[in-house]
TrEMBL record:
Pathway: Sulfur metabolism; dibenzothiophene degradation. It comes from Curtobacterium citreum. The keyword Lyase does not apply. The lineage of its organism: Bacteria, Bacillati, Actinomycetota, Actinomycetes, Micrococcales. Belongs to the DszC flavin monooxygenase family. It comes from the Bacteria. This is Dibenzothiophene monooxygenase.
Length: 406
């Protein structure tokens, strides 16, 4: 693996050490699995068995108690060998975050424990095509007997093809938002696995249809109980995956240049590894990856700080929504992540394109699979367009408009 630009951290090094042999094992056939579009079900189980699913579970609940930044850094390492597998953790850890930062009920603790033991969570948030006005069409209403029933169709349901549970955003009959934790094995749940993107092909990001699915009261959760830095969380996971892709593209580009047997007739050296122009390309790719890594690292501290403040307020029984210190931390973390988004995205897209300039036509061979890095990066970058984030950051700088007031 390419060395990270993130400063050494004894706590993280201790946490990641037992996972690194597992990550290396995952990488052995990851390129072939992606080419053949084979799900990484077995490999996901290896990470669960290694304890990764318990990283964000509090120590008092039998978990590891890792920081969010630790999770992000680990996802980047997983993404370096398999960005599809790295992506499926996004909704899982988000739901853990929900429950850890909610009311702390017996249900919260019980479900987080089960998730840590390997009951994986997928997502059901977005709908495609987007309804007019952006309103949700998925509904959760009580039947005549008082049981909640969920009906609707979701898309971009990353991780659902691997899931035991799926978190689904829906409206009740008064228009209030709820998150339903749905049993993926219920006969009313149909996972389409029909993601049509040219990247992230084995993430299960396609459709899931819900038809009259019963949901017990304890698994119908008010949307308002969600943690307040969720946007920063979701976007930083994307950055972690992009950083991992950039590292992989650099590593494989170096390996491919080393393996070139001859130079181009217009080149400056018979040995491609001695051609200063080709070396300059690799140096540029390295700089792009370094920039992505550095921007990613710079955004982690502010997200941890927002999480720490929210955790402290909940522990003290205080109301987070009225705390000015938390609001300031949320704004700083939002801006830090938005700034990182432009740098990371631009840098990794550049790196995964430029690397081919050092390799000649053989660099496009399907056996190398170098194109998968650009396809995966481009697909991730399209998920949440950075053009909007640049505008919002500029609106704060020029007009003082807080991103929290959008």
């Amino acid at each position: 693996m390419c060395p990270s630009e993130i400063p050494a951290d004894d706590r993280y090094d201790e946490l990641i050490a037992p996972l690194r042999p597992v990550i290396e094992r995952i990488g052995i056939d990851a390129r072939q699995r992606e080419s053949e579009e084979r799900l990484a079900t077995e490999q996901l189980g290896w990470l669960v068995d290694a304890g990764f699913a318990r990283w964000r579970t509090p120590v008092a609940w039998g978990g590891v108690g890792a920081r969010l930044s630790d999770v992000f850094r680990a996802i980047a390492e997983i993404a370096e060998v398999d960005p599809n597998l790295a992506h499926v953790w996004r909704n899982h850890f988000s739901f853990v975050e929900d429950r850890v930062h909610a009311e702390g009920t017996a249900f919260d603790r019980a479900i987080v424990t089960r998730l840590g033991d390997g009951e994986f969570v997928g997502g059901g948030w977005s709908e495609s095509p987007n309804p007019a006005g952006g309103d949700l069409t998925t509904r959760i209403v009580r039947d005549a007997g008082g049981t909640w029933r969920l009906t609707g169709r979701k898309f971009y349901s990353t991780g659902s093809v691997y899931a035991r549970w799926i978190t689904v955003l829906a409206l009740n009959d008064t228009g209030a938002r709820f998150v339903a934790l749905v049993d993926a094995q219920d006969p009313g749940v149909v996972v389409g696995d029909d993601w049509d993107g040219f990247g992230q092909r084995i993430t299960g990001s396609g459709s899931v249809t819900y038809t009259d699915v019963p949901v017990p009261d304890e698994r119908v959760l008010p949307y308002a109980t969600r943690y307040p830095y969720q946007e920063q969380y979701y976007q930083t996971v994307m950055h972690a995956i992009l950083v991992g892709i950039g590292r992989a593209a650099l590593r494989e580009g170096v390996e491919a240049l080393r393996s070139r047997a001859r130079g181009h007739h217009n080149g400056t050296a018979a040995d491609p590894t001695r051609d200063p122009e080709l070396l300059s390309v690799i140096g540029t790719v390295d700089a792009r990856v370094h920039a992505a890594d550095a921007a990613f690292a710079a955004s982690l501290g502010p997200v941890d700080a927002a999480d720490d403040r929210h955790t402290a307020l909940r522990a003290a029984g205080a109301e987070p929504s009225t705390d000015p210190v938390l609001r300031a931390a949320l704004e700083r973390s939002w801006i830090a992540v938005a700034r990182a988004q432009t740098v990371v995205t631009d840098a990794v897209l550049d790196a995964t394109t430029l690397v081919f300039d050092a390799l000649g036509s053989s660099g496009t061979f399907r056996s190398l699979g170098l194109d998968r890095h650009w396809r995966n990066a481009r697909t991730l970058a399209s998920h949440n367009p950075r053009v909007h984030k640049r505008r919002i950051v500029a609106d704060l700088l020029v007009n003082g408009a807080s991103p929290l007031d959008r």
